[in-house]
Amino acid sequence: MNFSSKLLENAVNEVSQLPGIGKRTALRLVLHLLKQPASQTHQLSASLNNLVNDIKLCKKCHNISDVEICEICANPSRNSEIICVVEDVRDVMAIENTSQFKGLYHVLGGKISPIEGIGPQNLTIDSLIEKVKEGLVKEVIFALSSTIEGDTTNFYIYKQLEKLAVKTSTIARGIAVGDELEYADEVTLGRSIVNRIPFENSL
């Protein structure tokens, strides 16, 4: 792809590094930004800078937040005895949209995947185990996608919790095998949470 401007080329190269964005799409987006008022592009740039500089991870659940303790963990009406284990913030948002879950979350930050070099030590599993050891959690719900990596992660955590006095369950398989939670419709996902089953029954 030949560019008439080095500035344009640099911008396209940066945008094309985003997931699912090729060079042609990146060029179309950059040219679109150039046609907009400069203030709009500056606002986009400022919001991205603020995102990088000011975003936090909740100290309790590791969800993305603007403050030290996220709104969900800080909400006294949530049931702190039930923790739903998810991969990332997209899954929290998907489950919250169902309005069927009133407990708290624990965001792992990924799934165990030896191929990608992601082991248990790269996730927030240790802090989940410590949270359960405090004795205040009555149930841990595994809500990872039903992929090999998701099932491996579920089983690893289950073995860590097996000797602790906590109930473990998994979302019902209204979610097709191989599907990601964020793409499930709200009704199906909501029913999967409500109709969860003991984890050992899924083995």
How would you describe this protein?
- 41% of the residues lie in helices and 13% in strands.
- The radius of gyration is 20 Å and the shape is elongated.
- The strands form two sheets. Strands 4-3-5-6-7 form a five-stranded mixed beta sheet.
- It has 203 residues and is of the alpha/beta class.
- Helix 1 (6-15) packs across helix 2.
- Strand 1 (56-57) and strand 2 (64-65) form a beta hairpin.
- The relative contact order is 0.10.
SSE arrangement:
Elements: H1 6-15, H2 23-35, H3 38-54, E1 56-57, E2 64-65, H4 71-74, E3 79-86, H5 89-96, E4 103-107, H6 125-133, E5 139-142, H7 148-161, E6 167-170, H8 186-194, E7 197-198
Parallel strand pairs: 3-4, 3-5, 5-6
Antiparallel strand pairs: 1-2, 6-7
Helix pairs in contact: 1-2
Function: May play a role in DNA repair. It seems to be involved in an RecBC-independent recombinational process of DNA repair. It may act with RecF and RecO.
Family: Belongs to the RecR family.
Protein name: Recombination protein RecR
What would the keywords be for this entry?
alpha/beta; Dna Topoisomerase Vi A Subunit, Chain: A, domain 2; elongated; DNA_Rcmb_RecR; zinc; 203 residues; Helicase, Ruva Protein, domain 3; two-stranded antiparallel ribbon; 2 domains
